[in-house]
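FORM 7B - TANDEM STRUCTURE REPORT

SECTION 1: FIRST PROTEIN
SEQUENCE AND C-ALPHA COORDINATES:
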Amino acid sequence: MKIIKTALAAATIALAVPAAPAFAQEFPLEAGEYAQFNGIYVTDGGDYKYAEWLAGEWKNFQDYALSQGWITGYKIFYNVNPRDGEPTMYLMTSFASMPDAAEQERRNNAFDAWAKKSTEQQIAESGNRAEYRTFKSSLLLQEYTPR
Protein backbone atom coordinates (compact mmCIF):
# COMPACT_ATOMS: atom_id res chain seq x y z
CA MET A 1 0.00 0.00 0.00
CA LYS A 2 2.87 2.37 0.87
CA ILE A 3 4.44 1.78 -2.58
CA ILE A 4 1.14 2.53 -4.33
CA LYS A 5 0.68 5.79 -2.38
CA THR A 6 4.24 6.84 -3.19
CA ALA A 7 3.79 6.02 -6.88
CA LEU A 8 0.43 7.83 -6.97
CA ALA A 9 1.96 10.91 -5.31
CA ALA A 10 4.86 10.90 -7.78
CA ALA A 11 2.47 10.58 -10.73
CA THR A 12 0.34 13.48 -9.44
CA ILE A 13 3.42 15.70 -9.03
CA ALA A 14 4.68 14.75 -12.49
CA LEU A 15 1.37 15.80 -14.03
CA ALA A 16 1.37 19.12 -12.14
CA VAL A 17 4.86 20.17 -13.28
CA PRO A 18 4.91 21.42 -16.86
CA ALA A 19 7.42 19.82 -19.15
CA ALA A 20 10.69 21.76 -19.38
CA PRO A 21 11.80 22.74 -22.86
CA ALA A 22 14.40 20.52 -24.44
CA PHE A 23 16.91 23.41 -24.26
CA ALA A 24 16.87 26.90 -22.83
CA GLN A 25 17.20 29.75 -25.28
CA GLU A 26 20.57 31.45 -24.91
CA PHE A 27 20.68 35.23 -24.31
CA PRO A 28 21.82 36.86 -27.58
CA LEU A 29 24.55 38.95 -25.91
CA GLU A 30 27.58 37.63 -24.05
CA ALA A 31 28.97 39.48 -21.02
CA GLY A 32 32.59 40.55 -21.25
CA GLU A 33 35.08 42.75 -19.44
CA TYR A 34 34.40 45.72 -17.23
CA ALA A 35 35.68 49.22 -17.93
CA GLN A 36 35.98 51.85 -15.20
CA PHE A 37 36.01 55.46 -16.45
CA ASN A 38 37.05 58.19 -14.02
CA GLY A 39 36.23 61.71 -15.16
CA ILE A 40 38.92 64.24 -14.28
CA TYR A 41 38.68 68.03 -14.50
CA VAL A 42 42.09 69.65 -14.98
CA THR A 43 42.39 73.31 -13.98
CA ASP A 44 43.62 75.90 -16.45
CA GLY A 45 47.39 75.63 -16.61
CA GLY A 46 47.45 72.26 -14.84
CA ASP A 47 47.60 70.05 -17.93
CA TYR A 48 51.37 69.68 -18.03
CA LYS A 49 51.77 68.93 -14.32
CA TYR A 50 48.97 66.36 -14.38
CA ALA A 51 50.29 64.84 -17.62
CA GLU A 52 53.66 64.36 -15.91
CA TRP A 53 51.99 62.51 -13.03
CA LEU A 54 49.96 60.36 -15.44
CA ALA A 55 53.00 59.49 -17.56
CA GLY A 56 55.03 58.66 -14.46
CA GLU A 57 53.44 57.46 -11.25
CA TRP A 58 49.95 56.62 -12.59
CA LYS A 59 51.42 54.63 -15.48
CA ASN A 60 53.67 52.75 -13.02
CA PHE A 61 50.65 51.93 -10.84
CA GLN A 62 48.73 50.64 -13.87
CA ASP A 63 51.67 48.61 -15.16
CA TYR A 64 52.02 46.96 -11.75
CA ALA A 65 48.29 46.07 -11.68
CA LEU A 66 48.61 44.74 -15.24
CA SER A 67 51.61 42.58 -14.27
CA GLN A 68 49.59 41.11 -11.39
CA GLY A 69 46.67 40.26 -13.68
CA TRP A 70 44.34 42.58 -11.76
CA ILE A 71 43.57 44.63 -14.87
CA THR A 72 43.66 43.89 -18.58
CA GLY A 73 44.44 47.38 -19.84
CA TYR A 74 44.30 51.13 -19.29
CA LYS A 75 43.94 54.27 -21.40
CA ILE A 76 43.71 58.03 -21.12
CA PHE A 77 41.01 59.82 -23.11
CA TYR A 78 40.96 63.61 -23.53
CA ASN A 79 37.53 65.18 -23.95
CA VAL A 80 38.22 67.12 -27.15
CA ASN A 81 35.02 69.18 -27.03
CA PRO A 82 33.89 69.25 -23.39
CA ARG A 83 30.52 70.83 -22.68
CA ASP A 84 30.16 73.02 -19.62
CA GLY A 85 30.76 70.94 -16.51
CA GLU A 86 32.15 67.88 -18.32
CA PRO A 87 35.48 66.35 -17.35
CA THR A 88 38.64 67.33 -19.23
CA MET A 89 39.70 63.70 -19.49
CA TYR A 90 38.75 60.17 -18.62
CA LEU A 91 41.09 57.58 -17.15
CA MET A 92 39.95 54.11 -18.22
CA THR A 93 40.92 50.81 -16.64
CA SER A 94 39.61 47.47 -17.91
CA PHE A 95 39.39 44.23 -15.96
CA ALA A 96 37.84 40.80 -16.37
CA SER A 97 35.97 40.49 -13.08
CA MET A 98 35.24 42.23 -9.79
CA PRO A 99 37.32 41.02 -6.84
CA ASP A 100 35.51 40.05 -3.64
CA ALA A 101 36.29 41.91 -0.39
CA ALA A 102 39.03 39.51 0.73
CA GLU A 103 40.78 39.65 -2.65
CA GLN A 104 40.53 43.46 -2.72
CA GLU A 105 42.15 43.63 0.73
CA ARG A 106 44.95 41.31 -0.44
CA ARG A 107 45.50 43.50 -3.51
CA ASN A 108 45.53 46.69 -1.42
CA ASN A 109 48.18 45.22 0.89
CA ALA A 110 50.27 43.98 -2.04
CA PHE A 111 50.04 47.37 -3.73
CA ASP A 112 51.03 49.24 -0.55
CA ALA A 113 54.06 46.96 -0.15
CA TRP A 114 55.04 47.41 -3.80
CA ALA A 115 54.55 51.20 -3.71
CA LYS A 116 56.42 51.40 -0.38
CA LYS A 117 53.76 53.87 0.77
CA SER A 118 51.05 53.61 3.38
CA THR A 119 47.43 54.21 2.54
CA GLU A 120 47.71 57.46 4.51
CA GLN A 121 50.61 58.66 2.34
CA GLN A 122 48.76 57.76 -0.86
CA ILE A 123 45.64 59.67 0.25
CA ALA A 124 47.74 62.71 1.18
CA GLU A 125 49.46 62.66 -2.23
CA SER A 126 46.11 62.40 -3.98
CA GLY A 127 44.96 65.47 -2.06
CA ASN A 128 48.07 67.33 -3.21
CA ARG A 129 46.99 66.84 -6.82
CA ALA A 130 43.81 68.79 -6.02
CA GLU A 131 45.91 71.87 -6.83
CA TYR A 132 45.51 71.13 -10.54
CA ARG A 133 42.85 68.41 -10.90
CA THR A 134 39.45 67.39 -9.54
CA PHE A 135 37.92 63.94 -9.66
CA LYS A 136 34.51 64.64 -11.29
CA SER A 137 32.79 61.33 -11.88
CA SER A 138 33.06 57.59 -12.16
CA LEU A 139 31.36 55.25 -14.59
CA LEU A 140 31.52 51.44 -14.55
CA LEU A 141 30.49 49.74 -17.78
CA GLN A 142 30.45 46.12 -18.82
CA GLU A 143 31.05 45.16 -22.44
CA TYR A 144 28.53 42.93 -24.18
CA THR A 145 28.99 41.39 -27.61
CA PRO A 146 26.53 39.57 -29.87
CA ARG A 147 26.87 35.80 -29.79
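SECTION 2: SECOND PROTEIN
SEQUENCE AND C-ALPHA COORDINATES:
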Amino acid sequence: MNVTSSAPTRKPRQCGPLPFLIRRDGVWLYRGSPIKRKPMVCLFASALSRAEDGTYWLRTPMEEGTIEVEDVPFVAVELEWKGCGQNQILCFRTNIDQVVTAGPDHPITAQWDVPLDACDSAPPPYLTVRQGEGQLPLLARISRPVWYELAALVEPGCCGGRPCLGVWSSGEFFPLALSPRGCRDADEGC
Protein backbone atom coordinates (compact mmCIF):
# COMPACT_ATOMS: atom_id res chain seq x y z
CA MET A 1 0.00 0.00 0.00
CA ASN A 2 1.38 3.37 -1.02
CA VAL A 3 0.72 6.11 1.51
CA THR A 4 0.99 9.70 0.39
CA SER A 5 0.79 12.78 2.51
CA SER A 6 -2.31 14.86 2.05
CA ALA A 7 -0.80 17.84 3.86
CA PRO A 8 -0.89 20.92 1.65
CA THR A 9 2.45 22.23 0.43
CA ARG A 10 3.06 25.68 1.82
CA LYS A 11 4.47 28.26 -0.55
CA PRO A 12 7.04 30.67 0.85
CA ARG A 13 5.75 34.16 1.59
CA GLN A 14 6.85 36.65 -1.09
CA CYS A 15 8.79 39.48 0.57
CA GLY A 16 9.80 41.42 -2.54
CA PRO A 17 13.19 43.16 -2.45
CA LEU A 18 15.14 42.39 0.72
CA PRO A 19 17.65 44.89 2.20
CA PHE A 20 20.69 42.78 1.28
CA LEU A 21 23.55 43.69 -1.02
CA ILE A 22 26.52 41.52 -1.96
CA ARG A 23 29.36 43.81 -2.93
CA ARG A 24 31.86 43.02 -5.66
CA ASP A 25 34.45 42.10 -3.01
CA GLY A 26 32.13 39.40 -1.58
CA VAL A 27 31.08 41.36 1.52
CA TRP A 28 27.42 40.91 2.43
CA LEU A 29 25.56 44.00 3.65
CA TYR A 30 22.25 44.11 5.49
CA ARG A 31 20.62 47.54 5.51
CA GLY A 32 23.99 49.01 4.49
CA SER A 33 26.03 47.39 7.29
CA PRO A 34 28.47 44.52 6.74
CA ILE A 35 27.44 41.17 8.17
CA LYS A 36 30.47 40.34 10.28
CA ARG A 37 29.55 36.83 11.44
CA LYS A 38 30.84 34.44 8.79
CA PRO A 39 28.50 31.58 9.84
CA MET A 40 25.57 33.92 9.18
CA VAL A 41 26.93 34.80 5.71
CA CYS A 42 27.40 31.09 4.98
CA LEU A 43 23.81 30.39 6.07
CA PHE A 44 22.44 33.12 3.80
CA ALA A 45 24.67 31.93 0.95
CA SER A 46 23.25 28.41 1.25
CA ALA A 47 19.74 29.87 0.71
CA LEU A 48 20.82 31.90 -2.33
CA SER A 49 19.54 30.99 -5.77
CA ARG A 50 19.44 32.62 -9.18
CA ALA A 51 16.32 32.79 -11.31
CA GLU A 52 16.22 32.32 -15.06
CA ASP A 53 15.96 36.09 -15.54
CA GLY A 54 19.24 36.62 -13.65
CA THR A 55 17.79 37.94 -10.39
CA TYR A 56 19.18 36.63 -7.12
CA TRP A 57 16.82 35.26 -4.48
CA LEU A 58 17.15 34.36 -0.83
CA ARG A 59 14.76 31.45 -0.39
CA THR A 60 13.79 29.68 2.79
CA PRO A 61 10.83 27.34 3.29
CA MET A 62 8.96 30.26 4.92
CA GLU A 63 10.00 33.39 2.98
CA GLU A 64 11.66 34.48 -0.22
CA GLY A 65 12.78 37.76 -1.70
CA THR A 66 15.20 39.27 -4.17
CA ILE A 67 18.59 40.72 -3.24
CA GLU A 68 21.05 42.95 -5.04
CA VAL A 69 24.44 41.62 -6.21
CA GLU A 70 27.03 44.02 -7.64
CA ASP A 71 28.90 41.42 -9.71
CA VAL A 72 28.54 37.79 -8.61
CA PRO A 73 27.80 36.45 -5.12
CA PHE A 74 31.08 34.66 -4.41
CA VAL A 75 34.82 35.24 -4.71
CA ALA A 76 37.41 32.49 -5.26
CA VAL A 77 40.10 33.43 -2.74
CA GLU A 78 42.43 30.43 -2.76
CA LEU A 79 43.70 27.87 -5.27
CA GLU A 80 45.25 24.47 -4.74
CA TRP A 81 46.31 22.30 -7.65
CA LYS A 82 47.91 18.95 -8.24
CA GLY A 83 49.18 17.28 -11.35
CA CYS A 84 49.86 18.97 -14.65
CA GLY A 85 48.53 19.13 -18.18
CA GLN A 86 45.35 17.15 -18.82
CA ASN A 87 45.75 15.40 -15.47
CA GLN A 88 45.77 18.66 -13.50
CA ILE A 89 43.10 19.24 -10.83
CA LEU A 90 42.30 22.82 -9.73
CA CYS A 91 40.48 23.26 -6.40
CA PHE A 92 39.23 26.70 -5.39
CA ARG A 93 38.10 27.91 -1.96
CA THR A 94 35.49 30.65 -1.95
CA ASN A 95 34.99 33.48 0.50
CA ILE A 96 32.35 31.31 2.23
CA ASP A 97 34.83 28.41 2.57
CA GLN A 98 33.16 26.28 -0.08
CA VAL A 99 35.64 24.16 -2.02
CA VAL A 100 34.89 23.80 -5.73
CA THR A 101 36.88 21.64 -8.15
CA ALA A 102 36.91 23.06 -11.68
CA GLY A 103 35.68 20.60 -14.28
CA PRO A 104 32.70 19.80 -16.51
CA ASP A 105 30.14 20.62 -13.77
CA HIS A 106 32.10 23.62 -12.46
CA PRO A 107 33.64 25.32 -15.50
CA ILE A 108 35.96 28.31 -15.47
CA THR A 109 34.70 30.96 -17.88
CA ALA A 110 36.58 33.97 -19.15
CA GLN A 111 36.11 36.57 -21.84
CA TRP A 112 39.23 35.24 -23.52
CA ASP A 113 38.58 35.84 -27.21
CA VAL A 114 38.64 39.64 -27.40
CA PRO A 115 41.87 41.46 -28.20
CA LEU A 116 42.96 43.79 -25.43
CA ASP A 117 44.41 47.25 -25.94
CA ALA A 118 47.69 48.00 -24.22
CA CYS A 119 45.82 50.12 -21.65
CA ASP A 120 43.13 47.56 -20.88
CA SER A 121 43.39 44.72 -18.44
CA ALA A 122 41.78 41.36 -18.92
CA PRO A 123 38.40 40.89 -17.26
CA PRO A 124 38.56 38.37 -14.44
CA PRO A 125 37.61 34.74 -15.00
CA TYR A 126 34.68 33.20 -13.14
CA LEU A 127 34.05 29.77 -11.65
CA THR A 128 30.66 28.06 -11.57
CA VAL A 129 29.90 27.29 -7.92
CA ARG A 130 26.46 25.74 -8.42
CA GLN A 131 23.61 25.75 -10.87
CA GLY A 132 20.79 28.25 -10.61
CA GLU A 133 17.19 27.49 -11.49
CA GLY A 134 17.66 27.90 -15.24
CA GLN A 135 20.66 28.33 -17.48
CA LEU A 136 22.31 30.95 -15.25
CA PRO A 137 24.62 29.50 -12.60
CA LEU A 138 25.84 31.01 -9.34
CA LEU A 139 29.41 32.17 -9.95
CA ALA A 140 32.53 33.12 -8.05
CA ARG A 141 34.78 35.83 -9.45
CA ILE A 142 38.37 34.61 -9.34
CA SER A 143 40.27 37.12 -7.19
CA ARG A 144 43.33 38.87 -8.58
CA PRO A 145 45.89 36.84 -6.52
CA VAL A 146 44.25 33.58 -7.60
CA TRP A 147 44.08 34.84 -11.20
CA TYR A 148 47.87 35.39 -11.05
CA GLU A 149 48.31 31.81 -9.82
CA LEU A 150 46.18 30.56 -12.73
CA ALA A 151 48.24 32.64 -15.17
CA ALA A 152 51.34 30.77 -13.99
CA LEU A 153 49.65 27.47 -14.94
CA VAL A 154 48.51 28.37 -18.48
CA GLU A 155 49.31 26.18 -21.44
CA PRO A 156 48.80 26.77 -25.14
CA GLY A 157 45.62 25.35 -26.58
CA CYS A 158 42.87 25.93 -29.06
CA CYS A 159 39.21 26.83 -28.65
CA GLY A 160 36.76 27.41 -31.47
CA GLY A 161 39.59 27.20 -34.00
CA ARG A 162 41.51 30.03 -32.33
CA PRO A 163 44.83 29.72 -30.53
CA CYS A 164 44.55 30.53 -26.86
CA LEU A 165 46.13 30.09 -23.47
CA GLY A 166 44.22 28.21 -20.80
CA VAL A 167 44.31 25.77 -17.93
CA TRP A 168 43.33 22.14 -17.52
CA SER A 169 41.27 20.75 -14.67
CA SER A 170 39.50 17.40 -14.36
CA GLY A 171 40.20 16.60 -18.02
CA GLU A 172 38.68 19.87 -19.35
CA PHE A 173 40.55 22.74 -21.00
CA PHE A 174 39.41 26.24 -20.03
CA PRO A 175 40.58 29.10 -22.30
CA LEU A 176 41.65 32.25 -20.43
CA ALA A 177 43.25 34.50 -23.08
CA LEU A 178 44.10 34.75 -26.75
CA SER A 179 47.55 33.46 -27.60
CA PRO A 180 50.14 36.14 -28.21
CA ARG A 181 51.19 36.47 -31.82
CA GLY A 182 53.85 34.09 -32.93
CA CYS A 183 52.96 31.34 -30.50
CA ARG A 184 53.53 28.36 -32.76
CA ASP A 185 52.65 25.76 -30.13
CA ALA A 186 49.08 27.06 -29.88
CA ASP A 187 48.67 27.43 -33.65
CA GLU A 188 49.54 23.81 -34.36
CA GLY A 189 46.41 22.30 -32.82
CA CYS A 190 43.86 24.73 -34.36
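SECTION 3: OBSERVATIONS ON SECOND PROTEIN
Residues 182-189 have pLDDT under 50 and may be disordered.
The radius of gyration is 20 Å.

SECTION 4: SIGNATURE
Preparer initials: ____
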